[in-house]
Amino acid sequence: xxxxxxxxxxxxxxxxxxxxxxxxxxxxxxxxxxxxxxxxxxxxxxxxxxxxxxxxxxxxxxxxxxxxxxxxxxxxxxxxxxxxxxxxxxxxxxxxxxxxxxxxxxxxxxxxxxxxxxxxxxxxxxxxxxxxxxxxxxxxxxx
Length: 143
Known about the structure:
Elements: H1 10-16, H2 23-37, H3 44-51, H4 55-67, E1 71-73, E2 79-81, H5 83-107, H6 113-119, H7 125-142
Antiparallel strand pairs: 1-2
């Protein structure tokens, strides 16, 4: 029997996931990608301000992301996304934006950041692509 068809605790589902990326790592990569896309300097200070965390936490996470080849980082130096970091960051940004579009539609609200942040780490690619197709249909019907 496929373990995806069995009930597990939330932590049990996490353990079944073969990705080494944690939810926190995803949040950092997404934010770093956002800063890069907005042509904002990618610095410990900027990341800390955007994520509302301590600079020491950012330094620690940047070292971890560097160890997994998602970015290059030197203490007190420049932070830049590696090719692998750009690829994952782009996906994370797309996922966030897609969920934000959906929740704004179904909740008829302009602001749903907290809900998106809570959902985005636990939804699979198949569902995301189906949501994207669904949104394209309903947005087309609205126009």
